């Protein structure tokens, strides 16, 4: 990107001219102090400006302006209003009313005055000279924010890592997607306005990535290695560090504390975002002889140079866990906002809301077909966000976010939802999602639901692919489900069997568990993306380009029918054939492939929804546990589970669970989670105070759980505010089904989904006449 300077012209308009701001080094002054200082100076400015204004703006002017703008009248303005009106009538302001009006001006939060002052401030530039000061500016509303002011480095110079770390630090105090988006948007705009070539590094680090997911570049640094680096970097004993880890619960905090208590002999060069990301990549890519030593050496160099809150975020980034409740979705939204707000000429105020919404949507869609920040960011800087869909397209070899299905409670609901639509029912196989990319020259990549490389797990599929292609089929992307398969009995095996296969580096000749690939969609064929085609077209191409090999590669069994009884029968067949149920899909209208979307055009129909009345299973995160008693001494007796609220970016407790565990599973989960005990719940956990858990865990894994039903709860916080303003929802009689290794905690069932399930259940019960009294 460096060679493309002129390409940035699009956004850089005036920003490139640079300014002669005085910049200092980030000092260690407390954020609080700085906040005060800036508040004072802003107040001063406003006061001065307002006083000056008063000399030439007549009271009448103010009155008129205030009326124009429908100013929110505070009690002061109320009391003053009559006298200003009176003055207006008389044509000349009396002295006392001028004084009062001055007060109005100073005290009321009128848009009028603030705008004028803001405009002035922009000319004068309240400029941050330290990270602590920058942080205060970053909390300003997007629309009031001056992107150049928050930079305490010169335009064109590398963005200091301290800038990002400080921003992450204030984000950690926020809960709520909007506030986080706002701060992060301001961060990105600052970078765009000063050093756009660092935007990629800043965004990538904010998203807690070092490379796109599908590249499979992982830092893979264990806590033991970090402890050792801390001893070396900060001259502390490993025992001390481990002890402190127990009280602070987070190696990042230990690093920060170590740094603060250490006397620095000399001042290192400040860290930059680009340097940090580069070093992370070097660490990830290094392998082989003595690579561990080299990795530690690199980490040490970073930690030695780190100051203030930098060690905290360096360590957490190294652990690939920021722990501030910032989801990638927010990073994308913030980037979208930043792109719009950095446009030159500026987007007119009356169009802004619509443009921001549009941009968020564009960003989400683009990222779902091309999850590569490098491409997205260079396209934004060069062409603006509106051009993204044109420039950043589906690309063979890069995984598309898988389309997802909505749960339904029975065939009649399906028929209801798909009235007057052509649709098709397919067997719903219970295995693992696989997106198979066949590249020019025969290279094959298999991606998981999470866009992770799964090629090494399925060498047998790789070997089978060429045999199921018809002549003329050259490049393609298939959407499939892999299931374990007994080729002698011609039978699909349960999911549990599949999950015993090793995850990486499987050798063809060692394979004991055979799999069959069930293909249900074709997203790309011979150079042509098919995402925008209707399902019937995609399916025809699928059938005509591939041939089945029984037990190895088959098409998902499908039936096009809209007869209730026929579908019911097909569902029974699916269950008898060891499937979970059906997925019902629109066929010829509203039937495009919607990447990464839980679409209304795919409905899942599982047999057990109807029998138990419990609806779909949920994927939940264990955030705490209760000590075991009796037979369960030494392991945990029960766990506290949470769903994930995507808007508030928090985990909300939904139930206590102690059922569905075999002894072995309980032991396994207990052992794993013991390594993730934290002394305090995370700031982004919500739970009733009366729950009384014995230990808290980090949010690290996802469990699939089934329940009898959902009910309103005074204790749990799931979906609070969505169904009941103050109460949450809880699960009744939850039992563990399995560990979901293909989901990360933020992919757990969302609060919104919990609310939907609760409502669907009510409707269902209403129809069935067996309404659950507990729910009302
Ligand atoms: N014919 C099919 N069409 C589409 N998906 C299928 C099909 N057969 C099996 N699947 C699998 O079913 C999944 C969707 O239903 P499932 O209830 O298993 O979702 P999940 O993985 O639990 O995720 P979530 O609950 O978040 O939707 C798909 O992601 C896919 O892996
Ligand atoms: Mg599944
Ligand atoms: Mg599910």
Automatic annotation (TrEMBL):
GO terms for molecular function: ATP binding; DNA binding; DNA ligase (ATP) activity. One of its GO terms (cellular component) is nucleus. It comes from the Eukaryota. Residues 72-82 have a biased composition (Polar residues). It catalyses: ATP + (deoxyribonucleotide)n-3'-hydroxyl + 5'-phospho-(deoxyribonucleotide)m = (deoxyribonucleotide)n+m + AMP + diphosphate. GO terms for biological process: cell division; DNA biosynthetic process; DNA recombination; DNA repair; lagging strand elongation. It is found in: Nucleus. Residues 71-102 are annotated as: Disordered. Residues 508-645 form the ATP-dependent DNA ligase family profile domain. Keywords: ATP-binding, Cell cycle, Cell division, DNA damage, DNA recombination, DNA repair, DNA replication, Ligase, Nucleotide-binding, Nucleus. It is an enzyme of class 6 (ligase). Its EC number is 6.5.1.1. CDD domains: Adenylation_DNA_ligase_I_Euk (cd07900), OBF_DNA_ligase_I (cd07969). Gene3D superfamilies: 3.30.1490.70, DNA ligase, ATP-dependent, N-terminal domain, DNA ligase/mRNA capping enzyme, Nucleic acid-binding proteins. Belongs to the ATP-dependent DNA ligase family. This is DNA ligase. It comes from Physcomitrium patens. The lineage of its organism: Eukaryota, Viridiplantae, Streptophyta, Embryophyta, Bryophyta. The gene is LOC112290811.
């Amino acid at each position: 990107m460096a060679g493309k300077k002129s390409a940035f012209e699009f956004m850089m308009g005036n920003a490139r001219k640079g300014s002669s701001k005085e910049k200092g080094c980030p000092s260690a002054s407390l954020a609080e102090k700085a906040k005060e200082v800036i508040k004072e100076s802003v107040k001063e400015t406003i006061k001065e400006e307002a006083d000056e204004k008063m000399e030439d703006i007549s009271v009448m002017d103010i009155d008129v302006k205030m009326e124009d703008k429908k100013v929110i009248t505070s009690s002061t303005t109320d009391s003053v209003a009559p006298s200003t009106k009176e003055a207006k009538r008389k044509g000349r302001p009396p002295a006392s009313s001028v004084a009062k009006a001055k007060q109005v001006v100073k005290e009321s939060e009128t848009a009028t005055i603030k705008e004028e002052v803001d405009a002035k401030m922009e000319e004068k530039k309240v400029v941050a000279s330290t990270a602590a000061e920058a942080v205060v500016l970053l909390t300003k509303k997007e629309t009031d924010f001056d992107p150049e002011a928050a930079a305490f480095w010169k335009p064109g110079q590398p963005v200091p890592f301290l800038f990002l770390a400080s921003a992450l630090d204030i984000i950690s105090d926020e809960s709520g997607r909007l506030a986080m988006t706002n701060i992060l948007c301001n961060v990105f705009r600052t970078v765009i306005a000063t050093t756009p070539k660092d935007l990629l590094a800043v965004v990538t680090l904010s998203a807690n990535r070092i490379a796109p997911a599908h590249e499979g570049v992982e830092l893979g640094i264990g806590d033991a290695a970090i402890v050792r680096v801390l001893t070396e970097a900060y001259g502390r004993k490993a025992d001390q560090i481990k002890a402190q880890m127990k009280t602070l619960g987070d190696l990042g905090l230990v690093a920060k504390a170590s740094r603060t208590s250490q006397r620095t002999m000399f001042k290192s060069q400040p860290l930059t975002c680009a340097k940090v990301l580069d070093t992370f990549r070097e660490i990830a890519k290094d392998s082989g002889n003595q690579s561990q030593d080299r990795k530690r050496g690199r980490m040490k160099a970073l930690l030695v140079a780190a100051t203030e809150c930098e060690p905290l975020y360096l360590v957490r980034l190294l652990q690939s866990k920021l722990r501030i409740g910032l989801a990638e979705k927010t990073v994308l939204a913030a980037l979208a906002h930043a792109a719009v707000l950095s446009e030159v000429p500026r987007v007119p105020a009356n169009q802004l809301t619509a443009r921001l919404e549009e941009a968020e949507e564009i960003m989400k869609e683009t990222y779902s077909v091309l999850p590569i920040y490098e491409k997205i960011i260079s396209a934004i800087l060069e062409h603006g966000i509106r051009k993204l869909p044109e420039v950043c397209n589906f690309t063979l070899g890069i995984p598309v976010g898988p389309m997802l299905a909505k749960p339904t409670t029975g065939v009649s609901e399906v028929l209801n939802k798909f009235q007057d639509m052509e649709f098709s029912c397919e067997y719903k196989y219970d295995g693992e999602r696989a997106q198979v990319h066949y590249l020019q020259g025969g290279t094959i990549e298999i991606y998981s639901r999470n866009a992770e490389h799964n090629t090494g797990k399925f060498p047998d599929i790789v070997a089978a692919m060429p045999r199921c292609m018809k002549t003329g089929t050259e490049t393609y992307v298939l959407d499939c489900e892999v299931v374990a398969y007994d080729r002698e009995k011609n039978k699909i095996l349960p999911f549990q069997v599949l999950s015993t296969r090793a995850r990486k580096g499987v050798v063809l000749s060692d394979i004991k568990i055979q799999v069959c690939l069930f293909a249900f969609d074709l997203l790309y064929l011979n150079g042509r993306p098919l995402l925008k085609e209707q399902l019937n077209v995609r399916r025809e191409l699928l059938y005509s380009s591939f041939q089945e090999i029984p037990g190895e590669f088959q098409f998902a069994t499908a039936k096009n029918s809209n007869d209730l009884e026929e579908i019911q029968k097909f569902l029974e067949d699916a269950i008898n054939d060891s499937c979970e149920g059906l997925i019902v899909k629109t066929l010829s209208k509203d039937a495009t492939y919607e990447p990464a979307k839980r679409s209304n055009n795919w409905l899942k129909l599982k047999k057990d929804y109807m029998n138990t009345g419990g609806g779909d299973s949920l994927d939940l995160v264990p955030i705490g546990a209760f000590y075991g008693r009796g037979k369960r001494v030494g392991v945990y007796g029960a766990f506290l589970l949470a769903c994930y609220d995507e808007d508030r970016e928090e985990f909300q407790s939904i139930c206590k669970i102690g059922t569905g565990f075999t002894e072995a599973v309980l032991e396994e989960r207990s052992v794993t989670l013991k390594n993730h005990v934290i002394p305090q719940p995370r700031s982004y956990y919500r739970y009733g105070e009366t729950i009384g858990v014995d230990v808290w865990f980090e949010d690290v894994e996802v469990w699939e759980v089934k329940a009898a039903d959902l009910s309103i709860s005074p204790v749990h916080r799931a979906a609070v505010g969505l169904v009941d303003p103050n109460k949450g929802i809880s699960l009744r009689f939850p039992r563990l089904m399995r560990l979901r290794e293909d989901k990360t905690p933020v992919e757990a069932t969302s609060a919104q989904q919990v609310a939907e399930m609760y409502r669907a259940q009510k409707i269902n019960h209403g129809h069935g006449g067996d309404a659950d009294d507990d729910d009302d």
